[in-house]
Amino acid sequence: MFYRKLLFLLVYIVCVVRPNDINIGGMFGGNEDNEKAFTYAIEQANRNLEGKNMKALIEKESFENAQGPFNSMMKMCQLLNEGIVAMFGPKLQENIDIIQAMCDEKEIPHILTWKNYRSIRTGSILNFYPHPPMLSKAYTDIILSLEWKTFTILYEDDESFLSLIEVIRELEANNIIVNVRQLDKYQTGNYRPILKEVKSSGQTYFLIDCRIEHLPEVLLQMQQVGLMTGDYKLFITNLDTHTEDLTPFQYSETNITGIRIVNPDSEYVQKISSEMYAEDKSIMFMQSWKLKTESALIIDAVNMLSKAFMEINEESLAIGNIQCNSTESWAFGYSLINLVKTSTYNGLTGLINFNHEGFRSDFSLEIYELKEGGIPMIGTWNASSGINITRQGKIVDEDNLSSLHNRTFIVITALTDPYGMLKETHEVLVGNDRFEGYGIELIHQLSLMEGFNYTFIIREDKKNGKQDELTGKWSGMIGDLIEHRADLAITDLTITSDRAEAVDFTTPFMNLGISILFRKPGKAPPSFFSFADPFAIETWAALAMAYFVVSISLYAMGRLSVDEWTNPYPCIEEPEYLINQWSFANSFWFATGGLMQQGSEIAPIGLSTRMTAGVWWFFILIMVSSYTANLAAFLATENPINLFTDVASLVENAEKFKIRYGSKSGGATEIFFRESTNPLYKKIYQHMKEHSEDMPLENNYGVDLAEKEQYAFFMESTSINYVTQRHCDLQMYGNLLDDKGYGIAMRKNSPYRQQLSTAILKLQASGELDNLRRKWWEERRGGGQCESEGESADATPLGLQNVEGVFYVTIYGAICAVFIVMIEHLIYVIKVSRKTKISFKETFKLELKSYLNFESNVKPVLSREDSKEGSKSKSEEEGKSEKSTKSEKNPVPYGFNIPSKESPTKSNSNSTSKLFKSKNENSSHSS
After folding, report:
1. Please, what is the average pLDDT of the chain?
2. CB atoms within 10 A of CB 544
3. Which of 848, 739, 814 lies closest to 513, judged by CA?
4. Which residue of 26, 183, 398, 677 has the lowest C-beta tally within 10 Å?
């Protein structure tokens, strides 16, 4: 039976438990095309994953307005229980918000593949759909190339209108008159009233923004009301327009312009489409023209994830069982997100890479027109190079200024360790040779890759840049870029939303976050009761309980065990009474001797008492060994005194322990606290405003305060790592408060941003950025002198879960001993009953009466005269006389209790007196 169970367990482990499974969750709102693309992409990616297996877990998204977010949350909890490492969807905005919040909390990548104009930059979100602001720019460029002077926007809903606000503003700035109309305000499906209204206005140019499932009906009703003739021109913004059957409108002579991000004529797109729709009989021909943008983005997203998984070891992918109601999160989640963000992939939707904010702002679009012969492409649009119309007519083609070869840049930096520093040398140096550091060397590596020249200038006040609230002008390096005093800026320049609106940034060359710099904790003195530290309180309580239970068990089993009732006179074969060594005090003394590992003069005789004593000694052996081992660990460990552990405890204990705290004045860290909506961070910023003396102008001053005083300095993690490599009394406390990066800054709409970002990604992929970081953080300028001392884990008291096994051994041993003593007792009663000819029931009662007489350790030996009937017929005097005579023959040995009047021996004080009197007389005669 045991081997069958073992075999079943092995089969279960091999067949069911798949340690290499990578679970990917998805909610696609019931869209069958997206679910099919998701499943197909995972199956395709598994062919290239060695030793790993991606698994699709699809949950149906709830569309109920009231219960939708709650149901989505519950389904997300189910997916978390399955151990997902990434989440696709959902589709509805009200459901996206709750899923995004859960992914942020658990640090699980949240992947979107559709247009979401309310997407914000968070730690977990990855939206593969083109960034809406850049799409708006594409719309604007196309309309300008079409030379429309006035037009009407026909939008579907609020989400659609949000995407067009920037288009309206930009075109109105170019003196283009824009009219806005909603197609179907009450979602009745009848667009004719508004179409008739715009027709009567005399407008002939229209921009249409609606869902792809509604687009054919909109075009059909436009044809019905007479808006599909040669006099009208349409620009349709939906990226899937080409996937619909536009044959009914090919011969209307209406100029219809559309855009797409998926090229159906691409060999790769055709290959993927034919495989994905191979079993779909409804799509037999031109499958590539039916592949929608969302489905293509899902395939690209899965492929990028699988590419990232190939670079991750299996231990990092072991996410475990993260519950919704716990505070646990995936430690490798943000690493996976950053790995995807910083990688590139050429997929169905073109080249995919993300900007510093995590959005896909660099993409290419194809521009096409609907003609009688088909849908020819007439141009392209690219985020970096703009629009390029290739058909006959007006050609809008911006000069290619993106090449960096043989260009010369003025690069501004600051003397901030380790990004820019003066070389320590006795020689007189000039020009760029005067400087060294991480940023200096990074620019040099980029110049070698792209072939440009550079000249460094220094910002003496080390200010990165701050916008004046009154004038709106920027100071520091940002202002130098805007005023054309420099072309590039590199230092510990944090990418923030305000700065990104003023200047452009490359892809981050370093990711970081805000943390706390403070002195290392002191060591706590040992407590008076430090000897009790090796065991937890519950362990000590359980030990005391075990001692008490074992002592009582020995006492009870000693009285019940036949072998423990011994003959006080070994020379007499048939004594009239027996004695027992297991008194109440002796039982506790025996347990005490075992507990102290000293033993005692009491030795158990019966099998049950010996078994109980054996398991008690085994229990003490394990407990004492565990105590000794853990005591050594406690004596060798000095527990630190942590005044705080994270930002919350810092704010809570600052007044109690007189801890001052602050950040660099005017820096990105202060801006973070100022703009945060977190109540705790707002409280910190208020404290900073009220204590300006705790806001140093430079990081070096803050480091000095942290080292010499009771001062906590909010600082970026990369700078803290640099400081703690050189100041051994300081360390970083708590987790990162945010997620951001350092980038190279340049003027807005600079043509060099894409080239520099690509070069940085190449350096990152080759490991050169890691080498630079290691060089300037751990090797140069005193780095590495505070190497980790191999911090050992603090000794922790042993709880019940650590020693519960030996408790169970003791309990089960005692239970076995109880059964044994009962069996022994029954066998003994049977033997006595047969020998004395007394009934079993009567014998059992007499024996039990002797055992329950806890006032005496003496028990009479039953004989035939002790039968129930004989004992009742005999007079009390005969019994006393007889027992007195027997007592004189067999005196009670010294040290045992003399049976009382009520005891089974029925002896009394008179017989005892006679016994001692007879002894005295003999003594006198002898003398």
Report:
1. 78
2. 10
3. 739
4. 677
Measure the CA–CA gap between 589 and 256, rounded to whole angstroms. Answer: 102
Let me know: does 314 contact 18? Beta carbons within 8 Å: no
pLDDT at residue 46, as a whole number:
87
Q: How far apart are CA 225 and CA 238, in angstroms?
A: 22
Q: How confident is the model at residue 903 (pLDDT cuts 50, 70, 90)?
A: very low
Token digits for 422?
A: 């003066």
Question: Is 191 strand, coil or helix?
Answer: coil
Cα 585 to Cα 854: distance, rounded to the nearest angstrom? 12
Query: Is the pLDDT confidence value at 26 over 60?
Result: yes
What CA–CA distance (Å, rounded) separates 904 from 856?
10
Paired residues of 798 in beta bridges:
535
Residue 577, SS3 per DSSP: strand
When computed from its CA atoms, the radius of gyration of the chain, rounded to whole angstroms, is 44
**What are 540's two structure tokens?**
């000590």
Domains plus CATH for the chain?
A: 20-129+290-356 (3.40.50.2300), 132-288+361-389 (3.40.50.2300), 408-512+741-779 (3.40.190.10), 530-634+799-873 (no CATH), 642-738 (3.40.190.10), 879-927 (no CATH)
Single out the residue of 770, 675, 758 nearest to residue 718, CA to CA: 770
SS3 for 79-138 is HHHCCEEEEECCCCHHHHHHHHHHHHHHCCCEEECCCCCCCCCCCCEEEEEECHHHHHHH
What tokens appear for 413 in the block? 């930096």
CA distance 581 to 579: 7
Angle at CA of residue 431, ends 427 and 434, nearest 5°: 45
Which residues are part of a known binding site for L-glutamate?
494, 499, 669, 716
- Specify whether the CB–CB gap between 304 and 345 falls below 8 A: yes
Q: Which residues pair with 365 in a beta bridge?
A: 381
| 359 Rama class: left (phi>0) / alpha (psi -120 to 50) / beta | beta
Phi/psi of residue 771, each to 5°?
-65, -40
- Mutual angle of helices 293-309 and 267-276, in 10-degree steps: 90
Residue 170, amino acid = E
**H or E element: which one contains 351?**
strand 350-352
Q: Distance between CA atoms of 896 and 729, rounded to whole angstroms?
A: 71
Q: Which residue type, as a one-letter code, is found at position 377?
A: M
**Three-state DSSP state, 720:** helix
Q: Is residue 559 within 8 Å of 566, Cβ to Cβ? A: no
The binding site comprises 494, 499, 669, 716
Whole-structure pTM value: 0.46
Cα–Cα distance measured from residue 613 to residue 457, given in angstroms and rounded to the nearest whole number? 85
* Torsions phi, psi for 474 (to 5 deg): -100, 145
Confidence bin at 295 (pLDDT 50/70/90): very high
Tokens of 791: 């911090």
Q: Cβ(191)–Cβ(218) under 8 Å?
A: yes
To the nearest 10 degrees (0 to 180), the angle between helices 68-81 and 93-106 is: 30
Reduced DSSP (H G I as helix, E B as strand, rest coil) percent helix, strand, coil of the chain, to 5: 45, 15, 40
What does the angle CA 124 – CA 125 – CA 126 come to, to the nearest 5 degrees? 125
CB atoms within 10 A of CB 229: 11
Element (H, E) at 640: strand 640-641
Which segments of 693-824 are extended strands (E)? 711-716, 730-733, 740-742, 745-747
Residue 807's pLDDT is: 67
Residue 153 C-beta-side C-alpha neighbours within 13 Å: 24
CA distances for 264 relative to 233, 235, 269, 271, 360, angstroms: 24, 20, 6, 10, 21
- The full DSSP string for 512-530 is E-EEEEEEPPEEPPPPTTG
| pLDDT tens, residue by residue, 682-732 | 888 888 888 888 888 888 888 888 888 888 888 888 888 888 887 887 888
Q: Is 856 helix (H, G, I), strand (E, B) or coil?
A: coil
